[in-house]
Amino acid sequence: MNQTIIGTGVALITPFKQNGSVDHTALEALLDHVTEGGVDFLVAMGTTAESATLDDEERREVLQTIQEKNQKKLPLVIGVGGNNTRAVVGQLERLDIADYDAVLSVAPYYNKPTQSGLQAHFNSVIEASPLPVILYNVPGRTSSNISAETCLNLARSSEKVIAVKEASGDLQQVMEILKEAPEHFSLLSGDDNLTYPMLALGAKGVISVSGQLVPKLFSKMMRLALSGQMEEARSIHYKLFTLTDLLFQEGNPAGVKAGLSALGICEKAVRLPLVSATPELQSRIQKELLQL
Hints:
It is built from 12 helices and 8 strands. The chain has an 8-stranded parallel β-barrel, surrounded by 6 helices. The longest helix has 18 residues.
């Protein structure tokens, strides 16, 4: 099992100013917040980063800010994925790996490939990647589910495939993967409110959205669960349950940005086609934060 990418990972947002430009000062404040909060690793340029709305120069500058602020204090995962296999392979071949520990690669979206297509796509990703690969299964966004069989085939094909971020919401599929997973391969939760049950089944970590809002509490739950203190971890899980549910009511990352705005870390601004959380939701998130 890979011992670097386990525990609490956070899928970093990209803070924006009210004029729509990237707020690098807020990004540095966020990195301080999560690092001091005790998270175990960082994920840059995932879906939560609104990476689809960033141009190439903005992506480069965001990554530079993260790298310079992090200074290799925490393991750093970079998102490299898409629905054009040749383009993804090209990105991986050009990747400067100096500051990264792994690649998170999402299943191709919109194309709706078969399992054979998913297998062939990820075989190309694995071959091209200069770093260990974390598969990312999120059928609610991609419209294609990486089946347990395909996931396991990929894990067995290469020790470079170290994990899957599993966000199907299907605990049956989670168990099928965990039951047959090779020793070097781990399962990471991609659903915050399903993280506790996944840990009980054998998951070794999470790539979390809400973990960057309340890193101390979320990381404590993870440490307790991973050390077998499940009753104590369950108590924190239920403390966080309502807040986590609120964060996703109007889409991600509108909710978590509303929460981070309430903490004074960044503006609530998102880029179209997303819109900011409604005042009602912002108020409910703020109230829940105060209770926590």
